Amino acid sequence: QKEVEQNSGPLSVPEGAIASLNCTYSDRGSQSFFWYRQYSGKSPELIMFIYSNGDKEDGRFTAQLNKASQYVSLLIRDSQPSDSATYLCAVRGGPGDMRFGAGTRLTVKP
Amino acid sequence: NAGVMQNPRHLVRRRGQEARLRCSPMKGHSHVYWYRQLPEEGLKFMVYLQKENIIDESGMPKERFSAEFPKEGPSILRIQQVVRGDSAAYFCASSPPPAINYGYTFGSGTRLTVV
What we know:
The structure holds two protein chains of two kinds.
Chain A: E1 4-6, E2 11-14, E3 19-25, E4 32-38, E5 45-50, E6 54-58, E7 61-66, E8 71-76, E9 85-94, E10 97-100, E11 104-109
Parallel strand pairs in A: 2-11
Antiparallel strand pairs in A: 1-3, 3-8, 4-5, 4-9, 6-7, 7-8, 9-10, 9-11
Chain B: E1 5-7, E2 10-13, E3 19-24, E4 31-37, E5 43-50, E6 53-56, E7 65-68, E8 75-79, E9 88-95, E10 105-106, E11 110-114
Parallel strand pairs in B: 2-11
Antiparallel strand pairs in B: 1-3, 3-8, 4-5, 4-9, 5-6, 7-8, 9-10, 9-11
């Protein structure tokens, strides 16, 4: 069974702080990794993807991947109340094979 | 450029009735994926389809659930003889032929309530 694990949270950070979200996966053959943001009652929205070891930055978001440790993370710098949402980690092993973690709920307090 | 269109947004069915959920992929996308999300849980893969083909249905319950993506028209997820445990949000996503680093675009979902 291919598993994607996330801390369910809730994770609470003050406005302006760095929020760190973590994800581990069990399938060593996984090839690409995605972070989705989901507001309550809404659909998931893709915010980042990464497929090479190291860091990938996009604005306030940085995705980090360590395939040896089977670990992927998302850092949100200068967190804003509008970042309050559930963040879903997704792992793809092959075409059509995208599996999601249960999500981490983030609250950014003004 | 319309995104992934799902309808209805909300669907209420009595136990034993049939539920039909529709999904029209984004223009240019030929691959459709259905996921189910229970409250406070992540997305669970159900089925992956191309036009007129089921590619992977490993996440579909063996009974009462079926999916199709005909040559013309939307993809349909069909649930027969619904039970209360089928109450969930059902999301459809689409993509072009899946390159490994290409993410999915999700529709707004259908929230099914079985009473």
